[in-house]
């Protein structure tokens, strides 16, 4: 089949031919030798390997890139065909203006198009030719640099091959938190500044310098890039949480667990949070109309919790707040509250998210009630305690080990009481965080040796310095 010749089509062909010839011979596009290419032309230059002070200029690299020129009037159809071949790298537009206003140029990925037009698949070539577009490309020199590489690409290139790169990090508002392994210590400045540059809206990069303190669940940290600004606001499960990351505990990797507990609850249900922090369980539950009893030994966490209650417009009548030791909260708040509750169609959950110590605090429930006291709560919905813990064993034994850990805390076989065990997250090799859900049965709660004359006092829900000091 022959194309129909017309004076108009002939003139357009002459015009395009001259444009394409000018594009390939003008001083701006430079023909490069094949020596400029490597096996992976888009990789970070090898010269940055082992860099300990970030030098952004060393990331510059020249590429030999095939470009395809086409008329602006045919851009929509041409771009659809060329899209799979675009050069897609950060901070670079693969479609640019040509030398004439009626001409556009597409920069093609050098890992896909190395020899020119013939590297396009047959259908793409035929479509472009049927549009009256050229059957060739021109080669340009393109200099890329630091801005054109992703953070993970840069870090993999900088850190020596025999060391593992940064495995991951958490984002809390404008803060990046990572746990750098000792062997990466000398590269922390580069790591911090790359993350500061590449992750949007980040002002501070910190690394943990010691283990989490089991009392207040915070830890010492070092700022490795950016400014010392630890007060931040983060969003989780459609709630806003403000906090001072240097003084309270927050882990965004627990967001799914927080949401899971919220989904278990409905208006009218009851939630006791023994270690509430700044409120990741309490705030979304309170917004649903759940009656919440919140506790944390850390007074700073309680201050932020109260601020978050206001900021998220939680009905303050739904939340009572204490700052007590966990065992004291169980004895002096949970117990009297249960004794006052009425029977009905609602659920009672108790969360204990302090994995390092929660099983030992769970032991407080053993023998908490006398037989006479238990008779007053027997008609209540059976409370369920979600005990979070760490297990260190082969993966196949995690569920068994978690059950054993919680059962041993009360020196009982809890096979009948444990109704759910969930994997929460991986913490380290052979170390996982687990959740064991336990139904508080009569045989756990009742100690037949206790006297029914034990006095039960209703505590003042307001925090006092004496409460904090005595706990």
UniProtKB/TrEMBL annotation:
S-adenosyl-L-methionine binds at residues 258, 296-297, 325-326, 353. GO terms for biological process: mitochondrial tRNA methylation; tRNA N1-guanine methylation. It catalyses: guanosine(37) in tRNA + S-adenosyl-L-methionine = N(1)-methylguanosine(37) in tRNA + S-adenosyl-L-homocysteine + H(+). GO terms for molecular function: tRNA (guanine(37)-N1)-methyltransferase activity. Residues 451-471 are annotated as: Disordered. InterPro entries: MeTrfase_TRM5/TYW2, SAM-dependent_MTases_sf, TRM5-TYW2-like_MTfase, TRM5/TYW2-like_N, tRNA_Gua_MeTrfase_euk. Its EC number is 2.1.1.228. Keywords: Cytoplasm, Methyltransferase, Mitochondrion, Nucleus, S-adenosyl-L-methionine, Signal, Transferase, tRNA processing. One of its GO terms (cellular component) is mitochondrial matrix. The keyword Cell membrane does not apply. Its main location: mitochondrion. It holds the Pfam family TRM5-TYW2_MTfase. Residues 1-25 form the signal peptide. Residues 169-442 form the SAM-dependent methyltransferase TRM5/TYW2-type domain. It is found in: Mitochondrion matrix; Nucleus; Cytoplasm. It comes from the Eukaryota. Belongs to the TRM5 / TYW2 family. Specifically methylates the N1 position of guanosine-37 in various cytoplasmic and mitochondrial tRNAs. Methylation is not dependent on the nature of the nucleoside 5' of the target nucleoside. This is the first step in the biosynthesis of wybutosine (yW), a modified base adjacent to the anticodon of tRNAs and required for accurate decoding. Involved in mitochondrial tRNA methylation. Specifically methylates the N1 position of guanosine-37 in various tRNAs. Methylation is not dependent on the nature of the nucleoside 5' of the target nucleoside. This is the first step in the biosynthesis of wybutosine (yW), a modified base adjacent to the anticodon of tRNAs and required for accurate decoding. Monomer. This is tRNA (guanine(37)-N1)-methyltransferase. It comes from Lygus hesperus.
